[in-house]
Amino acid sequence: xxxxxxxxxxxxxxxxxxxxxxxxxxxxxxxxxxxxxxxxxxxxxxxxxxxxxxxxxxxxxxxxxxxxxxxxxxxxxxxxxxxxxxxxxxxxxxxxxxxxxxxxxxxxxxxxxxxxxxxxxxxxxxxxxxxxxxxxxxxxxxxxxxxxxxxxxxxxxxxxxxxxxxxxxxxxxxxxxxxxxxxxxxxxxxxxxxxxxxxxxxxxxxxxxxxxxxxxxxxxxxxxxxxxxxxxxxxxxxxxxxxxxxxxxxxxxxxxxxxxxxxxxxxxxxxxxxxxxxxxxxxxxxxxxxxxxxxxxxxxxxxxxxxxxxx
Length: 311
What we know:
Blueprint: H1 6-13, E1 42-45, H2 48-58, H3 63-69, H4 79-91, H5 108-114, H6 127-138, E2 142-145, H7 149-160, H8 178-187, H9 189-208, E3 210-215, H10 232-245, E4 250-255, H11 260-266, E5 271-275, H12 278-282, H13 287-294, H14 297-300
Parallel strand pairs: 1-2, 3-4, 4-5
Helix pairs in contact: 5-6, 6-9, 7-10
C-alpha cells in the first residue's frame, strides 16, 4: 500500500473489511493493494468542468471556504463568487489547508484511476501518470458516466447481481463565467483528456457490439425449496431493466411467443426478437451433452448447493 493513503488505511481498519466483497466510494485505484486476490473495478466519470463546479459549491458547507468564496458576493454563483474562486485557485496552489490539489481541483479523476495517493498535495499529474490512468481505465470491468447516471448505476448493479431500487435525481448543470471555465480546463487538462478517451471507448464498444440474451419460464415459481423458488415476474422485471439500460444498443432477444410483445413494448429500435420455448431447448443438439455435464459428479461436487439447484 502506498504510504499515507488515508482512505486505504481507514478501509483496513473497518470491521467489515475482511468479509465484504463490494466496496464503493471515492477510492484511488491503489485500493487493490489492500487485497491479496484480484480486484475488479467499476468507475463512473463526470465532465471535469462540471465536477469541479459542483465541488466548489459543496465547499460552502465549511465556514472556512464560505468566508473566502462569498466575500463581497450577494449570492452563491454570482460574478463576485466566481472571481473569488479564481483568485483562490490562482493563489493557494500548494500551501496549507486550502491546497487545491488535496481537495481535487486539479486532475483528481486521473490521479484516482492512476492509483496515486490522493491525500498527498505534492503529487502533480504527469504524462506518465496519465498513461497509467489510461491503462487502468481500459482494464476496468465497466466505465460509466455521471451524465448517464441512471443507466450507469443500473448497468453496474446488473453486472454484480444486486437488486436495489433507487431514484436518480435530475443532473444539475451549472453555467459559469468563461474565465472560470477556462481556469478549470487548464487545471484539469489530463482529466479532460481522460474523460474524452473514456467517451471514445464507450462509443467504439457500442458501435461494435450486439447484445444477445434469452428468457424462458422453467417454472422456478413452482419449486418447493425457498432457496431456489423465484417467480417468473421477477425475471421479467430484470429483463425490463436490461432492455431499458440497452435502449440505444443493438440487441437480439430470445423469448417465448407470449412475451414477444412485452419485449417490443419496452424496446422497439435496434432490436430483433426471436421465438424460443423449453421444447426448443430440449430438442437442441446440445441438450443431451449439457445434461451429461450438469448431472456428473465432477460438476455437482463444485458446490454444495448445485445438487438441489434447478440449474
